[in-house]
Amino acid sequence: MAVRFERTALEGVTVCVPDVFRDERGFFMECHHAEKYRAGGVDAVFVQDNRSRSCRGVLRGLHYQLARPQGKLVTCLRGEIFDVAVDIRRGSPTFGQWVGEVLSEENCRQLYIPGGFAHGFCVLSESAEILYKCSSYYDPTDDRGVRWDDPELAIAWPVSAPVLSAKDARQPLLRAAELPAFVG
Questions:
Q1: pLDDT tier for residue 30 given thresholds of 50, 70 and 90
Q2: Which of 63, 64, 112, 119 is catalytic?
Q3: Which of 35, 99, 103, 142 is the most buried (most CB within 10 A)?
Q4: Homologous superfamily of domain range 3-176
Q5: Does 112 qualify as catalytic in the annotation?
């Protein structure tokens, strides 16, 4: 079994396209294989798996951890999402830039987002279930975020009036957020 790795405009953010074997019974795929992913540039050791379900129009994000950054390997198990990574590392050559990728149960694509990037997604289907592997444990005291609709980021979200949590609705703009420094 193989997996193809597609580089994005943001260094380290990688689209992972596993081989999917389909037949009349359904399908089979490897969701993660440490050696293959490491060879493809995804060198994270994952310590926590998270799963979420959301309905159409829900937008979650943009989230990150400041002192204990989390790399995330995001997979859409059911439905379809628009998944986004934003470079929030002060001093990075791509600071403030973003990439987005449609992930779905049909295309089986994954997005790897290293630490130092904010992550968010919106649901395009009736509902969606997301699984993401994290390279560090969630710490609520280290949880930070950036406004989903920050005009300086100008993310082309495919929803105009998303359903947001109270926390996500009041996140700061990028210029006012507490952000990690670029180490490179």
A1: confident
A2: 63
A3: 103
A4: Jelly Rolls (2.60.120.10)
A5: no
